[in-house]
Amino acid sequence: xxxxxxxxxxxxxxxxxxxxxxxxxxxxxxxxxxxxxxxxxxxxxxxxxxxxxxxxxxxxxxxxxxxxxxxxxxxxxxxxxxxxxxxxxxxxxxxxxxxxxxxxxxxxxxxxxxxxxxxxxxxxxxxxxxxxxxxxxxxxxxxxxxxxxxxxxxxxxxxxxxxxxxxxxxxxxxxxxxxxxxxxxxxxxxxxxxxxxxxxxxxxxxxxxxxxxxxxxxxxxxxxxxxxxxxxxxxxxxxxxxxxxxxxxxxxxxxxxxxxxxxxxxxxxxxxx
Length: 273
What we know:
This protein has helices at 5-31, 46-58, 66-92, 112-138, 142-152, 155-161, 165-185, 192-204, 209-227, 231-254, 263-271; strands at residues 105-106, 110-111. By secondary structure, it is mainly alpha-helical.
């Protein structure tokens, strides 16, 4: 099966989110409380996403031979887990997991029981899950719904985005890129998602506006040049800019500081008091 880079992109986020759910449930059982095991406080465990990408890139040719597919997943997951665990311990002095309590472990980074489990999961993902997911990501309404789950399903991500500027920037840029690819594939410029993201950016921090508007302008210019239609994209951009400015002005009126509205558009509001 030939897979596109866009499908790999969304497989990475889907499995990273599923991995986060698994890690959170495991930690909840172990510690009897919620522990966010995500990367940068978000609902993603990238090692699961990278593992799924490796499976999909190197193992599809073995789908007719499940045993060798299992062995390939066993080897790839073991190499990924070992190299990732060693890297974080040597560079950041942090051990993300420790399998020392299990028999047949190597340095506590990998162990036979879990490597066998990852090998079995590689068979399930490559033979059954990935074809279904790639079909969802390819086209139609299911693709936006499935992709939106990554960004909207976790209250932690949304809550932290408004309090942690780095995470907010990641969330907004990834969401904007997702909307860009969806609209580009469907040959349209009017993206409600980008429209809302640009308005939302000023509510978190106006420094994010150049990043999200850069993606929006790329989509509008590409559509206008390709289809030789400039009026529609121009109206869309004007309306989006107007709504963004109005929200920034309103936040400037509501808050005595620039904490939520952002300094730039906050000053616009102050000027009109």
